[in-house]
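Let us begin with a simple case.
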Amino acid sequence: MKYYLASFLFFITFINIISGSEKPILVPAVSENFNLDGKLEEKFYRENPPYLLRSITGKNPAGQKTEVWICLNNNNLLIAFRCFEKNIAELRKTVTRKDGPVHEDDCVEFFLRPDADKSCYYHFVVNALNTTCDSVRNNTKVKVYSVNPADWNGVWASNVSITKDYWSVELRIPAAQFIWGRKAAMNLCRERMAGKLELSSLAELSKGSFHCPEDFIEIKFNHFTDAVILKEVSEITFYDNKENNVHIGIRNKDKNQKNLKVELQLYSAGSGDADIIKRNYCLKGKAEEFIDFKYKIKSRAKYKRYKLLLHINDDLLFFKANRLPHILNIIIAGNLFYSGELVPVTIKCKAPYPEKYRYKVYLTGGKNKIILNKDVKFENNKNLTIAIPRNIQGKHTVLVQLCDDGNGVVDRIESDIRIVELN
């Protein structure tokens, strides 16, 4: 069974990790207010012994000591590093662009696998300038695959402090943006560039790489139910000629009413600025409600990414971020064709659009060279044929774009085919 972690609080105490036999880490719930200034001056850090990172293989102590802490604070994961450094003036801190090559600087890294039964895990990196990078990764037996860091931007914050003997980092990550399984795992790492390169890790890593999710350390939560439980969030749609609706099921167990804020952020390509749609709803005490968050967008073609956030009295309850989902699908009968042959293509669209919209269909070759293109009238379940020119062969791509009356691309989808010469 999966849980939205925001529906839970946790009450736990630390236990130490025995070297060579890593026990689960029990994360304490802490009510203290944290400044998130990177200085680590709060009572929690004074009264709770840190964990120590070791060499990446776990066999030896790290050359430069790194102390780490983790706790749950108001439904946020709070992670802290104190990185001792004898060459503090030589800290490498060159990357200033978010989602840039932050790992090439002196940096700390947090890995989270919210559902250890799944291959997906999250990667957060902060350098000594407080430049950040985050990404989602998928581990297979063959290779670790990563999305482009710019394609996934989580909700989180960090800060860095530098002294003459060490530099320290705090991260605050709302737990509600993850879907948690029965077992979760994580790892804390440091990449030291000042002086001699050194990699250190909390977990003992079998492959000499930080990206070993199978070696992450289990984290456990003893939880009890919070006052507000999120029961359902329906599919998010982005049609630009009809009203969109997200159906939200929510239960307020508290006798007092709560304020629910729903916020949809829409991002255009290459822009950090968002168009924001938000609504406020009042949740009655001791009641289960179903809310329809309705909205319209002027032009789907303008946007590439979105974030949906739900807050209860300013506390994050739910978070989802992704590219806009496809509304197009193309069906091609087979993937091997002869040059000169007619290729049957069916284009399906999930929503009705005005007749003035149209499809643009392309056949492209190496380096996206356009071999042919055609404009096609918009229809749902449109059937058409593509005539493959003679004397071409190899791997090619059928690309379909749905364009609005301003020539904006509402959606695009593609499928690869292989063309062979007919003897």
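The second case is a distinct protein. As before, the sequence precedes its structure tokens.
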Amino acid sequence: MAVNADLVDLRVLLVPAPGADLIRIAVEAALVAAGGELALTPAAGNLLLVCGQLPDRLAEHADRLWEQMPHPRVRLEVAAVHDAERMLAAAASSLRDVPAQRAAAARGADPGHGLPSQEGHEDMDASGPEEMAGGHEGMDMSGHGGMDMSAHEGHGGMDMSAHQGHGGMDMSAHQGHGGMDMSGHDHMNMSGPGGIPLASGDEDRDGLEMDVLNRTLGPVLPLWDSRILVRVVLAGDTIRSAEVELVAPAEAPPPGSAAVLRLDEAVRFLRIAGGDAVGDRLTRARNAAFDGRTDAALRDARSARRRIGRSPLIRWTLRGLTVRERPLRVLLLDRLDEAILLLRGETPAATAPLLGAEELAALVTGRDLGTARLLIAAVQPDPSSAAPPPAEPAAEDPAAERAHAEPTHAASGHAAAPGGHHHG
């Protein structure tokens, strides 16, 4: 696929469903060949692309990313490998539809969107700083109780002790601010931007106080295995505790895809480890294998294998890291050897360790985030400990189903557009 002038402006944020790796690989290959690029954050993207069918419990993560993306934007779902190029072209066409994008942006232009809730602030006019400066329950901020604020210009000769009462004004009166008790903030729960709770504190390993945060790694994280969710308690960048959930894919990978998947796993591993240069060559090998160009895939895979074996950077990055007493560097090379044998039509023995949820949690506990990501990329989740995909809900009456679905689009801020995609 040659560079396509219509697709070069696409910046795609991928949301792969568990087990939809081949769809994601098809999209990545088509995008890069056409001149587009992958986005690593919602702010950098203009196309949210869901690969495969997300389980309900993971769909909210995609909705949250969609809300953070700026206009113009498009949301698409790719259900099959052969749909990748067609859906990218549809997205580019939608982004160029300026009237539709402006209308979508106007529908979602909520001045409070993405900010902490103003509920409970009825007495405070939040329309702007100009109005607030003249308000504060009738208090003239220009004088602070009769004190000429122009005297602040030089603070020269002004007795600062006079500030004890700000001209006789009891500062405790600020507890009100229109009925809002600033001393407690209980009704705000000390939430930060977007309702995210503020961090608590705890001692770090060296005795310093560090922020303690609760976060979830996955499923929408660049270079992350979408079958794994890790809920962690972080002190700084160190994982204090972890709880792992494994999500079973909806269907098994098709026959003949093993070599492509092994190469894709090695690509993700390398890029997390910082080996982008050799990762580019290995990506070409993966895309060639995906397209059925076995000779080109073998040539690039062997070249990448030699470079990784000689690389001091990879050796230094992975030093001391093991899974079940096997060094991560050895696991990476074994993964490549397995892919090369598969490309040659041979059947190698599986080399990647299969870890269940409890063993994965123990593996990352006490590690920093960067090391934890390397360890996760080096292993395979054990399918026997994965949660099965949820059962399909019973069919509803079509009229009732439409009535239930319509408010959902309005509340989420994006409306369905023809062709299975959404405008802003």
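The radius of gyration is 27 Å. The longest helix spans residues 294-310.
Keep these points in mind for the review questions at the end of the chapter.
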